Amino acid sequence: MANESVDIQAPIVDGLSKAEQWLTNNSDLLVQYGVNIISAILILFIGNIVVKAVANSVSKLLHKKKMDKAVVEFIHGIVRYTLFVIVLIAALSRIGVQTASVVAVIGAAGLAIGLALQGSLSNFAAGVLIVGFRPFKSGDYVEIGGVAGSVDSIQIFQTILTTPDNKMVVVPNASVIGSPITNYSRHATRRIDHVIGVSYGADLKKTQEVIRRTLEADERILKEPGTTIGVVALADSSVNFVVRPWVRTEQYWDVYFDSLQAIKEALDAEGIEIPFPQMDVHLNKVES
């Protein structure tokens, strides 16, 4: 039994001796690697803080210059991601990874990813075009890609809209550039389009005067350009007037609803009928 115990312990002792000798011989190398790893971690940690600080400083500077919020967020994203890549390369080079090799790998990976994600790259390119040509800005009410809403932000790959019922809609930038863009907020004034139908028996001149008088009583309706009121169609059951006043863009919907109600009440007060669709049925008696 004693001999067996000696045989078992001998390899263990020999292994520990070799490990201790290896640690002794390579202690300087281990210390160097340890320092490099800790340095790389510190570079990542501190670099990330610096990147955020620089990106936020750029955003504040652009805000002070009264640059559009959507453009500021787009530039903020580009600055932050670009600087973080530089910090990552610096950290890898600290632990012995050749920077040139990293750049080559990133370039090759970028090419492969670019071929696989052509849609994302087109969204990025479209984002650059949006920022460059500025078809809309933050806060504008627009219709893009079949969606209408207020522009919240322009990001690297998508544009964020908020709909009137407070839903967030994410529209890819390529869809924004690739479809018609309707900007309802670009100009200072907008035209309201009403179609008012009255009965065929109504006095058309009186109807026109009642509508004009009603609109002139609203101070929010602009004097220039003038309001257009005229017969636009002889429909099946009504004579249709087109009513087109001009208002300031921010007052559009308030005036739209108020003017429509005011016209209805004024026509009722003057005894001018607004008919509903109806059909005359003629019965012919056939003698048997």
From TrEMBL:
Q: Return the similarity comment.
A: Belongs to the MscS (TC 1.A.23) family.
Task: Name all Mechanosensitive ion channel transmembrane helices 2/3 domain ranges.
Answer: 77-118
Question: What's this protein's function?
Answer: Mechanosensitive channel that participates in the regulation of osmotic pressure changes within the cell, opening in response to stretch forces in the membrane lipid bilayer, without the need for other proteins. Contributes to normal resistance to hypoosmotic shock. Forms an ion channel of 1.0 nanosiemens conductance with a slight preference for anions.
- Family matches, as PROSITE patterns: UPF0003 (PS01246)
Indicate where this protein resides in the cell. Cell inner membrane; Cell membrane
What is the protein's membrane topology class? Answer: Multi-pass membrane protein
Q: Where is the Mechanosensitive ion channel MscS domain?
A: 120-186
Q: Which protein are we looking at? A: Small-conductance mechanosensitive channel
Q: Which GO terms describe its molecular function?
A: mechanosensitive monoatomic ion channel activity
Which residues are listed as membrane-spanning?
Answer: 30-51, 71-92, 98-117
- Record domain Mechanosensitive ion channel MscS C-terminal: where: 195-274
One GO cellular component assignment for this chain's record is: plasma membrane
Indicate the quaternary assembly: Homoheptamer.
User: Which UniProt keywords are given for this protein, alphabetically ordered?
Assistant: Cell inner membrane, Cell membrane, Ion channel, Ion transport, Membrane, Transmembrane, Transmembrane helix, Transport
InterPro entries per the UniProt record, alphabetical = LSM_dom_sf, MS_channel_1st, MS_channel_C, MSC_TM_helix, MscS_archaea/bacteria_type, MscS_beta-dom_sf, MscS_channel_2nd, MscS_channel_C_sf
The main location class comes to: membrane
